[in-house]
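Input chain follows. Return structure tokens only.
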Amino acid sequence: MALDNEVIVEMKHIDMWFQGVHALDDVSLTLRRGEVHALMGENGAGKSTLMKILIGLYVPNKGEIWYKGEKLHIRSVMDTKKLGISMIFQEFNQVKYMSVMENIYLGREPKTKTGSIDFNKMYEDSKKLLESLGVDLEPKTKMADLTVAKFQLVEIVKAISYNADVIIMDEPTSALSDSEIQYLLKMVRLLCSQGKAIVFISHKLEEVYGVCNRVTILRDGHFIHSGLVSEISEAQMIKYMVNRDVSELYPKQEAEIGEVVLEVKNLTRAGEFKDVSFTLRKGEILGFAGLMGAGRTELMETIMGMRKPDSGEIYLYGKKIVNRIPEDAIKRGIIMVPEDRKKNGLILKLNIRDNILMSSIKKCVRHGMIQKSLEKKYCDEFGNKLEIKRSSDEQICAKLSGGNQQKVVVARVLNADPDIIILDEPTRGIDIKTKSDIHRLMSQLACEGKSVIMVSSELAEVLGISDRIIVLNEGRLTGILDRSEADPSTVMEYAIKNETKGS
């Protein structure tokens, strides 16, 4: 894929301190034209800090940055954009009520001779740019009408509009479907063929091996390894990142599986799922697999009372229940960790303590008063159990890494002491070590007699931690597999069953 070996960026011996914390310790990185360079490491390893130094958001305490053979003295993000270095952040910054072309040229709109915005030129320039990258978007389309995947594509086009030679992509596929991911990776390859240098930050090893030429691995702010992706195995890459073997990713313990605690009969919601029936037993981890749009999340939200079913029944310990709102489910001991932790799982402006205690503040009340000692007890108990990296329980959740935010959501759920825990994409967008921690916790909960439902788009995760696997396709249940009989090809066969029928 690489056009040549021309070095375009050299970051040499970078050191960075934050309030006494050594975030980066003697880290170096070399980027070459026409290559995709994976930057790997668990959350907190220093990946984003290193890239924010490259784009001028942070000034390192030590080290040098060389760009196209010249030593840089970066003063601002605008300096690096003018030089041709752009970063596409995981959190989008588009103005939704504006058009695609207005977002691409926001703050640097072409002007007419009279000083007003030249919308005709903006349209023509945007159209040429979009077409050159193979992006099928009308420049006048409002951002609010686009999918998340197309938001991502607009960000890439915006970066290219600065004539960027270096493009940094931070978790670009974390919210995309499989088909959208393939389209994005195709664009990455196109950019490389045009001589761009791409930094690709991702926790998904299959993407790294699918699109990246080189890899640099950081751990705890230290440089660990750099080299060709083709010369390092997945097992070795994981070992470099988390200093543990791949076998530890799915620490499954054998739990005693008991009585049926939840039974769903012929649950239907028009346009989302139809006639779904299954049981969940005490001490069981029940995995839900399927392609994007299979109806898994919608099914879980209906069980929780977030959506109203058209027909069907739900039984808890043999008694029929109706959850009209989520609070009904929570009172019955059913609680859910949602897919979108930032939108539905956390209040980012609140601190760790308030988020953890949100669903169970009554536990801290004595004689009509909230007891600070009990608040501290429960925060310490679940914060330590989940190993949440924090300066204190007063730390605002928006300042935590993605993995630690996910742990806070799980801590809130566990603090409510439910019998049934529904985890929707519990490890999406988090690092390998945190994934392993959450898998271990799931297994421990099952051993304690809790019942766990896990929805995941990662087939290895479903196979690695589930006792049974339920497969949905286009809203219909197409397969129920025991752990002993499940393998990737069998699960995928059920996941596309309707599509292959009669072929």
